[in-house]
Amino acid sequence: MPAASNHSPAPSSSLPPAWRIDPVRLRAALVDDARQWQLEIVEETGSTNADLVQACRRTPWAEGDMLQAGMLRLAYRQTAGRGRQGRPWQGQAGMTFSVAMPLALPPARLAGLSLAVGLALADALDDVDARLGKVVGLKWPNDLQIDGRKLAGILIESVPAGPQRVWAVVGIGLNLVRDAAMEAALGRSLAGVTECLDGFDPLHGPTDLLAAVLNRLAGMRTAFLADGFAPMARRWSARDAYRDQPVRLLHDGAVQAEGMARGVDDEGHLLLETASGLQRIASGELSLRPAGEGA
Ligand code: ATP
Question: Is it true that the peptide bond before 141 is cis, omega within 30 degrees of 0?
């Protein structure tokens, strides 16, 4: 995994040409559980996560066939996309979609889910093209990045449906291109899928990417239901972009802790080696940054 750095070439891509998901190609590429999910693609919405949270509240929990209750909602334009803590997400340079997954688990067993989703997304990019998989790193708890530049953000919201039942609504914003105007507007360097993929096919590429993500999410769901995050922790740490690097953890822009990042434990806590010993940090509202970098 390459070390994260702020050094990056100037963005060269412009916004992608209008792309469309091919529903027939998408269906044909889905395997296992993902084949049974409902697929919904719309032109525009406020937030696909907000839409699915509402849908989950309305959907009765039918024992036995809950697999068919899995839902994808993708919007070509999101007008009120959100990141963690209500931060805005700009989707115009990429794909924005959400997946609602029923999980027959008590809330205490959800630890590590957001890291498991990040790992599944990184694996999906690897499935699409190993050149991409090679450069994509994870930033705790669940960003994907290339050389310290954000490629994708993940927002997970849970909707309780009973004592051992919860819907996980997984929102993903994945930049297809690295867009200079968006970088200027956000004041930070970004990454895009196409920067590593010469000859990315705008016609089929997004559909193939989406299929790979859905297949990996379905596989992650099954594995997570069986064993939780623990068996994934080692692979997550191997993809950790900041492993063995000095980092700081911020809350509302203020530094809460500093130390060396040492990967994650079986519950998805960040292992931070500090002057006073090894700390296990729960994700909560903390943001990880390389040492010396502000909010
Ligand atoms: P954290 O480390 O806490 O995840 P973050 O600042 O990356 O911090 P997120 O909640 O993951 O926060 O994502 C929201 C932030 O992402 C916004 O505040 C904005 O700076 C940035 N952002 C918005 N749209 C995009 C995009 N398309 N690509 C990359 N970054 C974006």
Answer: yes
